[in-house]
Amino acid sequence: MNDPKSALPPVAGSALDLIGRTPMLEVRNLDIGPCRLFLKLENQNPGGSIKDRVARSMIEAAEADGSLRPGGTIIEATAGNTGLGLAQVATLKGYKLILVVPDKMAREKILHLRAMGVDVRLTRSDVGKGHPEYYQDMAQTLAQSIPGAIYVNQFANPANPLAHETGTGPEILAQMDGDVDAVVVGVGSGGTLTGVGRYMAAHSPKTQMVLADPVGSILCDYVATGTYGEAGSWIVEGIGEDFIPDNAQMDLVRKAYSISDRESVDTARLLLRKEGVLAGSSSGTLLAAALRYCREQTEAKRVVTLVCDTGAKYLTKMFNDMWLAAHGFDQRELHGDLRDLIA
Ligand code: PMP
What we know:
single chain; alpha/beta; four-stranded parallel β-sheet; 15% strand; globular; CBS domain; pyridoxal phosphate; transferase activity, transferring alkyl or aryl (other than methyl) groups
């Protein structure tokens, strides 16, 4: 007789012990050309996103170097998921948390943060780096004005890519039995790209890092030309940039795809209908790029991409036909097998 407990993880002593070791799912029902495509389900972290890993890593690094003392205040600029991860760690470890969040972010994320007792300061989404109301500038100024406060700064904090170099990267290679041809990632802070990319460079040099970037972000241009101009805007949350974060080691990128909001939304909806995975908007961008990459191959490649967060946070936005119509999505032409899926 099989012992039903033998395949189950042990009882955890803290939600923090449930971070990482996320499952891998093979895609079965999408057109992936000659390839095999696998999804690492980061939405299954306890806070619902890939950012749980870096929240724990950055707080533990600040504790270790003495900058964060018991009862101290943590301040961060975040689109939401890093904030949720930080809220979980801060609550369990007894720190105060102030988050500066751009006002374009999903209400579900903000309500979730408020429910966790976080002091959320909303700021403008329509201003760029250097403006006092830009979310990162605002967080930095705030940290300087509060004694004992630390500004986490996921965009430059080395404990961010380190969490992926020691966690996400090794897990991917192990789950793929050491055989991965490409990993498709997005860049928000650059932590995933840099951490997974460094690990693959050291342990699986054949693995190509592929960038999925929203149209409007400057990162694709930067990969192609080494320079960039003014950023546009996009509705996908958590990825795409108007600058190159210190944590984004862009020379790790071998190939880059610029993905429209339309394609990201359609692909996230397709993932839900065809594979049963309710994923967030950035996962739509990553999967769209992964599908393009797979279909371009002439040989069978083993490709991995990430489901960065759960789509439950976006039910009132990209999974809502009324919201899509209000944002002009119904006026654009649908293509291929997506036509019948968007009523
Ligand atoms: N997807 C989502 C939903 C995110 O919140 C983030 C982080 N901002 C990313 C992807 C990008 O990850 P990274 O910060 O490691 O570049």
